[in-house]
Model the fold of this input.
Amino acid sequence: MVTRLDWTSQSGGALHGSVRVPGDKSVSHRSLMLGALADGTSHIRGFLEGEDTRATAAVLQQLGVRIDTPADGERVVHGVGLHGLRGTTQQLDCGNAGTGMRLLAGLLAGQAFDSTLVGDESLSKRPMRRVTDPLALMGARIDTQDGLPPLVVRGGQALHGISYTLPVASAQVKSALLLAGLYAEGETEVIEPHPTRDYTERMLAAFGWPIDFAPGRAKLTGKHTLRATDVDVPADFSSAAFFLVAASIVPGSELRLPAVGLNPRRTGLLHALRLMGADIRIENERESGGEPVGDLRVRHAPLHGIELPEALVPDMIDEFPVLFVAATAAKGRTVVRGAAELRVKESDRIATMARGLRALGVAIEEAPDGATINGGAISGGSIDSHGDHRIAMSFAVAGLVANGTVNIGDCANVATSFPGFLELANGCGFRLG
Done:
């Protein structure tokens, strides 16, 4: 059981310095899984030392994969091959990692043994039918508790490829189907209503699996081989997002964020902030392990409200809590629509952000798929993050421009995605404790 942790955030001076945020969580999860299924040994550098990714590593170790940790941020994965995992009667605990659980559901659907995936209290409330239903169309058998975890994945099923159009764009569901497709007869094709992150596709190609993909679609055939490869994990854009907004809204600030992953399916917030007037430059653009990377330099700039283009929504779904904070600090009104998925993240992020912002004197109107935020002064007050790491960090940013202390409850889960956030934040000028 996680001990409750509370924070206080206060305004202070300008933010300055170079902030190296942790490795990308999505890439870290996938590098472990594909490394485990590959032939040979894969070296991962820049690995996110978070509870979510460690949970995925622990699950794979329970399934017979040797994973060494020569140093923080490094993993050496001794692959067992596509059919080398070993079953266990123990429950496989994904902790708070929705990515881990959904991707593992696809990976385990093709095994010869039964598996039971469980999670913490938050993950146990997150819907899983959107991944288990299409997997069932491929021949998988996965039992749920009325669509919620635990997931009991039945082994020994003959999987077959399908062409599936996602009703709602989701990189996690797409990735689960592609991972199941590694074990399926024939071709597996996933078509999206809007393009989502293509980390899985890029990494499958890097591990030598034949795959055809473009924005909005991906297809592969089963029964090939993954070859071990080395992976340099870029800094996580979602983690960088808090500092991009913080430096944008605190007068006199300038921050540099090196080696941030700039996958075009991930950087919707960057475009949204620029539409609001943010001063963010990309320097030293390059490619690392198939992923675009660059150094970000952000300076304070007056922000103004916008009507967020719905085309950006799928590329920034994790960054909406901190966008709400940017909108609060902006002049005028910001309108968000088309973001219904926020209702089923670690918390109902629309409702949780709306309650928290109202507690700080902000005028915000909820909609089923978004909100309207009226920019203006932020007062001090107390909010509850409901154990949602991104909510907690977003209100830490809000405290930088509040007229009083912002008390943030239930922050322990920040360690799931951003270990060391307090130290990095305070190191560049936050007043967070």
Observations:
- The longest strand covers residues 279-288.
- DSSP finds twelve helices and 23 strands in the chain.
